[in-house]
Amino acid sequence: MHALVATVVHHPEDARILHRQIRALLDAGHTVTYAAPFRERGVTPWPELTVVDVPRAAGRRRMKALRAARAVLAEHAPKADILLFHDPELLLALPENRPVTVWDVHEDTAAALLTKPWLPAPLRRPLGPVVRGFERRAEQRMHLLLAEEGYRDRFRLDHPVVPNTTYVPERIDRSPGTDRVVYLGHLSAARGAAELVELGRRLRPHGVRVEVIGSADAEVRQLLRDAQQDEAIQWYGFVPNDQALRMISGAAAGVSLLHDTPNYRHSLPTKVVEYMAHGLPVITSPTPAAQALVTGRPEGHCGTVVPFGDTEAAAEAVLRLRSDPRLRARFSRTGHAIARTAFHWPVQAKLFVRQLEEWAQAVPSRQPKSQESVLPHHAVSSTADPRAPKRFRGIGRTVSGSAA
């Protein structure tokens, strides 16, 4: 089976898209063409992939990216057995001549509009019903995969759920320490950027630093830069998921301080599962799914739930963990055991691949219809050059230069 995977919004190294779904397809013997904003994000693609560079859709500058995506999909979709796309925006760029098409629904799109800073405030609520209408029409025209059970109520038809779980190691590499707490994931006002900065300021006098790993919305970048300059936090920016997970290992706690917004009421933050998977006690705001996982499981608690916006309570939870090694160890063991039992990605990976195979009516041994790598703005030679950079060999054409 040859899959065309497309995004113009997400980072090309997005954990769900690349490290989980694409990795699962490759491991199952399928081939993948991946259309994503490699150049704008400075990403070197995996050598196993056929890659197509597209502009990034960000803020209010989206039409250029959608026009480019439409042209790319029109060219490459007919050569694939299945098209898997990850952005609701791409509903506007789908070509008529395309294979079996799957929309991977990552979020409650209409609810998410309420927290988008680039969208004028007067338009946010009125656009909700419009988006819902697009969603209802989409489920009549293509297959949907849902990242959360809570998304089912948005649709009339029944769609399979592929939860946004993670790889859970058999054993915890490092026990929780005492001198740092971590945040892993994208940053925005609604995701608690200001609260993380304030938490860092509260913990700094106690010798505990707050490490923040992830890209950020434009509206909070200066806040984060200023906080780093003041040494309130250490902000690393975007780090590929596999590297980021190594970085969080050994922290005293993993923090998730999401706001009480409609989009987050239906979702389990993947970062919470990732903290548990690597043996970190969790400190989270009381979004329903996070609270149920951290303090509502029969196996026991694996962290602390603090009120929305209460950085004092969050700081107290950190200091309590620092002073109580037995509590840290118990939360660590319990969280890891829950994650390993219920949230280990390879279990979901098999179901994900099997579902795409069923929809495409293909088998893993089928060869791709095309293996041409296309990276606009780079020189492309028509024959493979053994002197070319290793990362671009073996994908039909050799691309000279970097994907950055």
Low-confidence stretches: 362-374, 376-404
Average pLDDT taken over every residue: 85
CATH homologous superfamily assignment of the largest domain: Glycogen Phosphorylase B
Provide the CATH topology of the largest domain. Rossmann fold
Radius of gyration, whole Å: 22 Å
Sheet with the most strands: spatial strand order: 3-2-1-4-5-6
CATH class of the largest domain: Alpha Beta
| Discrete helix count | 14
Percent helix: 25-40%
Order of helices and strands: EHEHEHEEHHEEHEHEHEHHEHEHHHEE
- What share of residues are in beta strands? 5-15%
| Category by helix and strand content | alpha/beta
Total tally of structural domains: 2
Global geometry: globular
By DSSP, the count of extended strands is 14
Distance between the termini: 29 Å
CATH architecture tag of the largest domain? 3-Layer(aba) Sandwich
Major β-sheet annotation? 6 strands, parallel
What does this structure look like?
Helix 6 (193-203) crosses helix 12 (311-323) and helix 10 packs across helix 13. The two termini are 29 Å apart. Helix 7 links the parallel strand 8 and strand 9 (233-237). The protein has a 6-stranded parallel beta sheet, sandwiched between helices. Mean pLDDT is 85; it is low at 362-374 and 376-404. It has 2 domains: 2-165 and 345-400, Glycogen Phosphorylase B (Rossmann fold, 3-Layer(aba) Sandwich); 180-342, Rossmann fold (3-Layer(aba) Sandwich), CATH 3.40.50.2000. The chain is α/β, with parallel strands linked by helices. It has helices at 15-27, 38-41, 63-76, 109-112, 121-141, 193-203, 218-229, 241-248, 262-265, 270-277, 288-295, 311-323, 325-342, 345-360; strands spanning 2-6, 31-36, 50-53, 82-85, 100-105, 143-146, 180-184, 209-213, 233-237, 253-256, 282-284, 303-305, 379-381, 398-400. It is built from 14 helices and 14 strands.
